[in-house]
Design goal:
mainly beta, 0% helix, globular, disordered N terminus
Length: 493
């Protein structure tokens, strides 16, 4: 059952002052135009005692034609997962939205499930060949066990109603951080294949890839990379020729890496990992759950892949993080690490949890990019003083130049967010997708709690975000390596 839910909010945020040297035309963080209208597209309706209500976290989005689908956790639970997975769908390019909740997922869904206790980590994909929308997610603790299953719900009516869960992987292991994509190029030899990446935490976060060729009705076994690499948070992408490229956060002892691997045979096998860059990771202050620099990746019309993440390579002594970018045309050789100049070096503004969008009708030097993210105007803060904001920037030339950080929403006090065993939570990722010329973000936004309940819902922007003129990109570095990855273990529900 779905419900109509559109709550317009005109958000006027406070902005803390920042200081730092300005280089050439680099600007300070600016506030969004007064006419920007935020739109709440879903709210937590549940009342189960286990969850923290009203909370929604960790949205993903995908668009195809004039349809945009977002999915997110609803009713976040302190020690992992949520009461259900929610969705919000626009069939008219973001003008109006229909929201609802997946069936058959937990005891709290309609109809209820007697199999899984909680859900987590929703991602959205579309299979053009079979005309099917997919929301993949995790089913936690089936039948009282410690296992975590990888599941998918299907929609054949444009994202308005959804099926009960279909298994992707139910091997009894603790699986984590799934992400799904489909090959939507009719000329591709693997047109209609869908690919889901996840990691097997039981096996030290061994990277796994599963493939479906029938619209998500059935899935092949999880396959490792050729070098049995370990990692978390991969985002598979498909080039027009059918090559699948998967940027992912890899592990090297106590350090993080961004790596990638590929398949040229429709997911029958997967290459060894190639290192994109070593990550200089800074944990955001205040106890926010942002403990892994998960990448966000997109592909343009020509098949060029872009990946961004939070990194402090360009900040001497690492007092704050930038959002950085690397790109590749083959998934093996990657460009130098580029700092997106959201704020001046040394400003003290801390940027994290990015969500990248690339307009798939554009490419190369004319590719349109939008990145949304959370940030602290002052990185050196505490739980009591940190002010969490949502920002964005755009590029109209394939990432060669970018606009400065523009505040979209906030500030949010951390105590307005649900708490988890790993910190206060807006989500491990944020998401943005183009539908036509504008890009539509989906993000968790909180107001002050009242009446014993939180007030954290899923929001977008009425009319979307337009790509505008940009300033110069000034900073690049080589941060790659060919070192061999070693196993590590991270749990990220």
């Amino acid at each position: 059952m779905s419900v109509r839910f559109v709550r317009p909010v005109r958000w006027v945020g406070r902005l803390s002052a920042v200081a730092g040297a300005v280089v050439l035309t680099v600007a300070f963080t600016s506030t969004a135009a007064a006419s920007t209208t935020l739109l709440q597209i879903s709210s937590d309706p549940y009342t189960n005692a286990l969850s923290q209500h009203k909370t929604e976290v960790e949205p993903d989005t995908f668009s195809f034609g004039s349809t945009i689908v977002s999915a997110f956790q609803v009713g976040r639970i302190f020690d992992g997962g949520a009461a259900n997975i929610g969705f919000a769908t626009s069939r008219n390019g973001g003008r109006s939205w229909t929201s609802g909740f997946l069936p058959g997922t937990t005891p709290f869904s309609t109809p209820p499930s007697t199999v899984w206790a909680r859900t987590s980590d929703p991602t959205v994909a579309f299979d053009a060949k079979h005309g099917v929308w997919l929301i993949s997610f995790l089913g936690l603790f089936p039948n009282g066990t410690s296992a975590v299953d990888v599941l998918v719900s299907r929609s054949t009516d444009g994202g308005l109603t959804w099926t009960n869960p279909v298994p992707i992987n139910t091997d009894g292991h603790f699986n984590d951080k799934n992400w799904t994509v489909c090959d939507n190029t009719p000329s591709s030899p693997f047109y209609g294949n869908c690919y889901t990446e996840f990691d097997d935490n039981t096996l030290g976060d061994l990277i796994q890839m599963s493939t479906s060729s029938d619209g998500g009705l059935s899935w092949g076994p999880g396959l490792p990379t050729a070098n049995n690499a370990h990692g978390i948070g991969g985002q598979p992408l498909v080039q027009p020729n059918g090559r699948v490229i998967v940027p992912i956060n890899g592990f090297a002892g106590r350090n993080f890496l961004i790596v990638s691997f590929t398949s040229d045979n429709g997911g029958a096998s997967w290459s060894k990992t190639n290192i994109v860059a070593r990550v200089a990771f800074r944990l955001p202050a205040g106890g926010l759950r942002a403990t892994i620099p998960l990448p966000s990746a997109e592909v343009d019309a020509a098949g060029k892949v872009y990946v961004v993440w939070s990194d402090c390579h360009f900040q001497p002594t690492c007092p704050a993080s930038d959002i950085v970018l690397s790109s590749s045309t083959d998934g093996k050789a990657w460009s130098k690490l580029t700092r997106i100049p959201l704020d001046p070096i040394g400003s003290g503004v801390d940027h994290f949890i990015p969500g990248l969008a690339v307009d798939r009708s554009t490419s190369g030097a004319s590719a349109h990019l939008v990145v949304t993210f959370y940030y602290y105007p002052v990185s050196n803060c505490t739980t009591a003083t940190c002010q969490l904001n949502v920002g964005y920037a755009t590029s109209g030339n394939g990432g060669a130049t970018w606009t400065a950080n523009t505040q979209l929403a906030g500030p949010i006090s951390l105590t307005w967010l649900p708490n988890t065993s790993q910190g206060f939570m807006v989500g491990d990722y944020i998401s943005t997708s183009f539908s036509g010329a504008p890009a539509y973000p989906a993000f968790a936004l909180a107001n002050a709690p009242s009446g014993g309940l939180f007030d954290e819902g899923t929001y977008t922007v009425r009319g979307g975000l337009s790509v505008t003129s940009a300033i110069s990109v000034l900073d690049q570095t080589s941060a790659g390596s060919s070192d061999t990855l070693t196993p590590s273990s991270v749990t990220a529900q």
